[in-house]
Amino acid sequence: MRPSVRFLGLIMIGWTGLRAAAHDILPGAEIFQIERGEAKVPAIVPTEFPPIEPLQPAIPMTAFADFAPATATYASPRQGAPRIYYVAGPSSQPVLPTRLRGALPTPTRAPEFVATLFGSMTPVTE
Q1: CA 85, chain centre distance (Å)
Q2: Could you give the maximum distance between any two Cα atoms of the chain, in Å?
Q3: pTM of this prediction?
Q4: What percent of the chain shows pLDDT beyond 90?
Q5: Cβ-based neighbours of 113, under 8 Å, separated by 6 or more
Q6: Which of 51, 52, 84, 116 is deepest in the core (most CB within 10 A)?
Q7: Taking Cα atoms as reference points, which of 35, 32, 1 lies closest to residue 17?
Q8: Are 7 and 15 in contact (CB under 8 A)?
């Protein structure tokens, strides 16, 4: 008998024994079982809080009086049209060459392609 067939037989016998033990078919299997017990819930202890003291009635309009100065209207410090300041544009002096000027190529526009019905790409001509 080949070892693989022996292994499969051992697995089948073990699986059958496990299923029989799970369904209480094997005699003496009760030593491996855990007995069911009733849940023992402790009694709920009632909480006791001290009585809440009543609030003093508020004096009317005191909160509004505290914030009244914040609602005052303020006049604008300047009346009339606003001043407009003009800034001089770029200077007309020539741009001096630097060490990095011309180090990178000038970017060009990438060619555009149009897909045709059968998947070939053809360039767009303008």
Answers
A1: 47
A2: 110
A3: 0.25
A4: 12
A5: 121, 122, 123, 124
A6: 116
A7: 32
A8: no
